[in-house]
Amino acid sequence: MSDRRTRIADAVITLLAEQGSRGLTHRAVDAQAGLPKGSTSYYFRSRAELLGAAAPRLAELDIALVDQGGNDPASFMGHILDESLSGVGRIRTLARYELMLEAARRPEIHAALTAGTNRFRDKLTSLFPLADPQEARLLAGDVIAYMDGLFLSNITSPQMQRQSAVELKCRLARFIDLGVETSHE
After folding, report:
1. What is the residue-wise DSSP string for 46-94?
2. What is the CA radius of gyration of the chain?
3. Which terminus in the chain has less CB density within 10 A, N or C?
4. Cβ atoms 114, 122 nearer than 8 A
5. Which residue from 18, 8, 94, 19 is spatially nearest to 53, judged by alpha carbons?
6. How far apart are CA 88 and CA 64, in angstroms?
7. What are phi and psi of 82, to 5 degrees?
8. How many CB atoms lie within 10 A of CB 87?
9. What is the pLDDT of residues 42-94, one digit of tens each?
């Protein structure tokens, strides 16, 4: 992706997080990216193309985040949690949820988001000390689903009702331990 296309995709991600998909217009993207009016429509003619640019960019950023994670399930998930619920990571998490809803109706967006999820699942699967690789993959999928639920609940709750990162890490660790323990039976 060229620098300008990347800048536009990053602006789309920020707008999705801040205003939701209803706030996504070419004019808003131009302003967010600091580009002259009409620049975004030169690169991406439709709203669908803007969403289509954001999904692979988000997957690219997610894959980089996954590759920076730890080498055991708890530290890896702690890293993901820390990076997903504050600052720029929170923006990406909100945008991801907006794109997930769009992906339910748009296969091209679904495909791009799936690339990031698959990389995440592969990394997490490799961290589980289970003899059966299929069990490890299933457990990784369960952990991702549980984590998505925790993140969605936390990120959409009023500030005063949000759980701390420490509380969320403890809940994730208990879920992972339970899953590994159950898989060994």
Report:
1. SHHHHHHHHHHHHHHHHHHHHHTS-SSHHHHHHHHHHHHSSHHHHHHHH
2. 18
3. C
4. no
5. 8
6. 14
7. -60, -40
8. 10
9. 999 999 899 989 988 988 888 888 788 778 777 888 888 888 888 899 999 99
